Amino acid sequence: MVVPFRIKMVEPVKILSCQEREQRIKEAHFNIFNVRSQDIYIDLLTDSGTGAMSQNQWAGIMLGDEAYANCRNFQNLESVVRKVFGFKHFLPCHQGRAAENVLFSSIIKPGMLVPNNMHFDTTRANIMANGGKAVNLPCKDASKPFEDRPFKGNMDVKKLEEFLSVNSDNVPLVMLTVTNNSGGGQPVSMENIRKVSEICKDFKKPFFIDACRYAENSYFIKTREKGYSDKSPLEIAQEMFSYADGCTFSGKKDAIVNIGGILAMNNHDWFEKCKARLILMEGFPTYGGLAGRDLEALARGILEGLDENYLQSRIAQTQYLASGLKKAGIPVVWPAGGHAVYVEAKTFLPHIPQAEFPGQALTIELYREGGIRAVEIGSVMFAEKDEQGKMHFPELELTRLAIPRRVYTNAHMDDVIEVHKCIAERKDSVHGYRIVKGEGPLRHFTAWFEPVE
Ligand code: F0G
After folding, report:
1. Where are the beta strands (DSSP E) in 170-260?
2. What is the pLDDT of residues 360-403, one digit of tens each?
3. What is the CA(120)–ligand 1 centre distance, in A?
4. Which ligand 1 atom is at minimum distance from the Cα of 177?
5. H helices then E strands: how many in the chain?
6. Which of 348, 313, 311, 316 lies closest to 333, judged by CA?
7. Which pLDDT value is given to residue 180?
8. How far apart are CA 132 and CA 123, in angstroms?
9. Looking at the predicted structure, is the pLDDT value of residue 1 above 80?
């Protein structure tokens, strides 16, 4: 394996004492989002905006053209977007959820339904905020966390057909999230993308890709799907987007920038509507909430994120962490995702009922034990009451260890594995939590918790 970079600038980190960590997590009301960054040893909260930019990207930052309209960096970004994504129109946005908001507030009317393999939290929340309903149609393998299948991120195409046969009039577009972040960072196959596209054409529905991790998805297609081993990640990405009518994209993931995103599409009428919304919410259509320098870093990062050697080392690091945890007996979603390793917390901590948030309990324990910050992707994020007041829990109760790009070494990953082993030894003493403050689809960001003793 080749690691195609070396480190020439470092940021110091330290680990607080056990007593200090105990105090910090209490002060944070047991919500890891509230802990200060300097009090974290290894920060695996997210892979979003946390990557290390290259010298080429930093050099691009110095070439920022801060003209209000039509700056040079926009033109550079435009040519990269045209090459990689290929859609007729695009708008820069400050991040993925801004692209979602611009899109959904332009096209969704109350009561509309948006199917997806699995919506991420902000996608679902933006649909809901505009009066729509987000519908998940994952393939059956998605709910089998420990079975080794190559494309567990796929959409259930049969269910999509059935869904559109009944609800077509009420569906403004179909989405597909690559890779499937809420479902373990699992990839979607080209075959599935093609099939979803065909169904959308049959029902005359626009097909949009949530492209946050399209480069990692392309790499999985290259290494796991028949017929793609000789293609470059760029060629695979181009084919993937050729089946779609548009995409939302957070550059904070696979374009390795700290801020930035795009919204792209073929439909001219939708583009005009979105452009008007963008001007209102984000800024002029050639900068969309970003500085010229950010546009340049994004343009350069999109190309770097598709480099095959980089993608190989990236996916290998995720696999390194997943294999180490698996070897230590920790129930990790298998195979490893692209950007993150997911621990199935209700299997790891079976004595904690879902109503007491085992994923959250493990997140807290990781900080207590080793100053590690992970994030819950389980019932805090996704449990919801139906109209009759009955609580529905997600099938998987996950704690996600998201790996920032080009930031940590495998020695850090070894520490993460050690910390899990220590928790496993005393796991019967780990207890559940209840929410004392916080509601709504984004409550996980701000909720306060207390232990259920
Ligand atoms: N879609 C997916 C699949 C995502 O994972 C995210 C963000 C977004 C959309 C929104 O993008 O953050 O730029 O506004 N995911 C981050 C995460 C926050 O931690 O997984 P954004």
Report:
1. 174-177, 207-210, 246-250
2. 999 999 999 999 999 999 999 988 888 888 989 998 899 999 99
3. 7
4. 3
5. 16, 16
6. 348
7. 95
8. 11
9. no
Which amino acid, one-letter code, is at 434?
R
The model's pTM: 0.96
pLDDT (mean) for 14-41: 97
Q: How far, in Å, from the CA of 47 to the mean position of ligand 1?
A: 9
Our measurement of the distance from residue 139's CA atom to the centroid of its chain's CA atoms, rounded to an integer in Å, reads 18
Give the mean pLDDT of 347-360: 96
| Segment 314-319 long-range contacts (CB within 8 Å, at least 24 positions apart) | 314/216, 314/219, 314/338, 314/405, 314/406, 315/216, 315/219, 315/220, 315/223, 316/1, 317/403, 317/408, 317/410, 317/413, 318/185, 318/403
Supply the residue whose CA is at minimum distance from atom 19 of ligand 1.
Answer: 46
pLDDT (0 to 100) of residue 182: 86
Mean pLDDT of the chain: 96
Which domains, and CATH codes, for the chain? 18-47+308-451 (3.90.1150.10), 55-304 (3.40.640.10)
Ligand 1: nearest atom to the Cα of 402: 19
Q: Are the CB atoms for 181 and 223 separated by under 8 Å?
A: no
Peptide bond into 172 cis (omega under 30): no
Q: Coil, helix or strand for 327?
A: helix
pLDDT above 90: residue 358: yes
Residue 188 CA to residue 317 CA, distance in Å, equals: 20
Mean pLDDT of 158-177: 98
Residues with CB under 6 A from ligand 1: 46, 48, 95-97, 120, 122-123, 177, 181, 210, 212, 250, 252, 261, 402
Residue 355 has pLDDT above 90, yes or no: yes
CA 290 vs. chain centroid, Å, equals: 21
| Interacting residues of 162 by C-beta distance below 8 A, sequence separation 6+ | none
3-state secondary structure of 93: strand
CA–centroid distance, residue 93 to ligand 1 (Å) = 13
Q: What is the dihedral of CA 426, 432, 438, 444, to 10 degrees?
A: 50
Pairing state between β 207-210 and 246-250: parallel
Q: Give the pLDDT of residue 322.
A: 98
